[in-house]
Design a protein that fits this description.
single chain, alpha/beta, oxidoreductase activity, acting on paired donors, with incorporation or reduction of molecular oxygen
């Protein structure tokens, strides 16, 4: 078992901010509903729950068949006062000078709250749905060029031209400026190309939930690339989980096993096993490899939710009481994560529960550290899988 003494690890982030993902209607992986429309009342309630729950950011996802992330981000900005909307943007869908204009407009409307998460594209089939046939390595090269154009569009004092590998234009600008000087740019991915671009140029680098030691190695890698590129400000680390919580660890595991059976059944209806293929993106490949190796890691990381969905997106869970899950999140903060995305399977109810029961516990510990220069006993008192009973709960309800 790791040591949870009062010494704050040298790798620990002194801060943490929380991210959710905004859902547009009540459909979930537990209870899929037909149609992909926006339930406006539900959308309003969801954004209000994030504001009231103390979340710092919310991601507006993008897909070929989903609602437009710029429009939904703008709506979030107007329905909230503090939550920062993160626009998921694929470079193949929006010309970079237009993307810069749209993002700066959102930033002005929200008084500096806009963030952009650039998705280079992990699936050839999904990219082709909107006419993008570049191979994956080229897609990351395009993202690199896109970042340069975004930043120059926001800051150039005079018109400029650009003749690059993927984009060409003449005498653009000065562009429409953000609320302040710039807008944070996030990218993610686990391929060599993703690390190269993210380490050299991104403000934020995002990961899915992985075992602690493996994630620490990936953080070292992206920060090493940043230093080699001459950067003095390193990318912030964003890590994503799907917590399953209940009043006690035992009750949380009962819920987790119920959830995974329902998720597996619903996923099989949408994508029968015979039609399944290995995922193309490295992040999903890693998630499946971890799941194949073990279902349970560290204090509370559970991989079976990834296994039953073929790691289709962020899908690794943290299972336990609010105290156990908060302690597990702090383990990742100790590894260097300063942005933690938590989104559930019962989407609205989970967003409310996390805001009430998890965010305050994590923030309380970080406030203690700031005031005293030491860790409290919180992580040592809520051991999860580092204790004896937790593993019994994890297997007792398995069918």
């Amino acid at each position: 078992m790791p040591s949870f003494d009062e010494n704050i690890p040298a790798t620990a982030s002194p801060e943490v901010e929380f991210i959710s993902l905004t859902h547009l209607n009540p459909s979930t992986e537990l209870n899929p509903m037909p149609g992909r429309g926006i339930d406006l009342d539900y959308f309003r309630r969801y954004v209000r729950s994030l504001e009231e729950g103390g979340y710092d950011y919310t991601l507006l996802p993008y897909g070929a068949s989903s609602a437009d992330s710029f429009v939904t981000a703008s709506a979030v900005g107007q329905l909230s006062e503090h939550v920062r909307p993160i626009v998921a943007l694929r470079p193949n869908t929006t010309f970079p000078t237009v993307g810069a204009q749209k993002l700066a407009t959102l930033d002005q409307l929200t008084e500096g709250r806009a963030v952009v998460h650039l998705i280079s594209g992990g699936s050839d089939a999904e990219q082709a749905r909107q006419g993008d046939y570049l191979p994956k390595a080229k897609r990351y090269a395009r993202t690199s060029e896109y970042i340069d154009i975004l930043r120059r569009s926001w800051t150039a004092p005079a018109a400029f031209s650009h003749h690059g590998e993927f984009y060409r234009f003449d005498d653009f600008g000065p562009g429409f400026a953000p609320h302040k000087s710039t807008i944070p740019i996030s990218i993610g991915g686990q391929s060599d190309e993703a690390f190269a671009v993210g380490g050299a140029k991104a403000d934020i680098f995002s990961f899915w939930g992985e075992p602690l030691d493996d994630l620490r190695g990936e953080i070292d890698r992206v920060h090493g690339i940043a230093r080699a590129a001459g950067r003095t400000t390193l990318p912030r680390i964003w890590v994503t989980f799907r917590p399953i919580i209940a009043r006690t660890d035992e009750l949380a595991w009962e819920k987790a096993h119920d959830y995974v059976s329902r998720i597996a059944a619903n996923f099989a209806k949408v994508r029968p096993p015979a039609a399944g293929t290995d995922p193309q993106n490295v992040g999903s490949q890693r998630a499946l490899a971890f799941a194949d190796r073990s279902e349970l890691y560290d204090r509370a990381l559970w991989t079976k939710t990834a296994a039953v969905t073929n790691a289709a997106g962020a899908s690794t869970a943290l299972v336990g009481s609010p105290e156990t899950v908060a302690a597990a999140i702090l383990d990742y903060v100790d590894q260097g994560a300063s942005l933690v995305s938590i989104r559930g399977y019962d989407t609205l109810a989970d967003a409310v529960d996390y805001g009430r029961h998890i965010l305050p516990l994590v923030r309380q510990e970080l406030a203690h550290r700031k005031a005293t220069g030491r860790r409290s006993d919180f992580q040592a008192e809520h051991l999860g899988n580092y204790g004896a009973e937790y593993g019994e709960f994890a297997t007792a309800s398995r069918s």
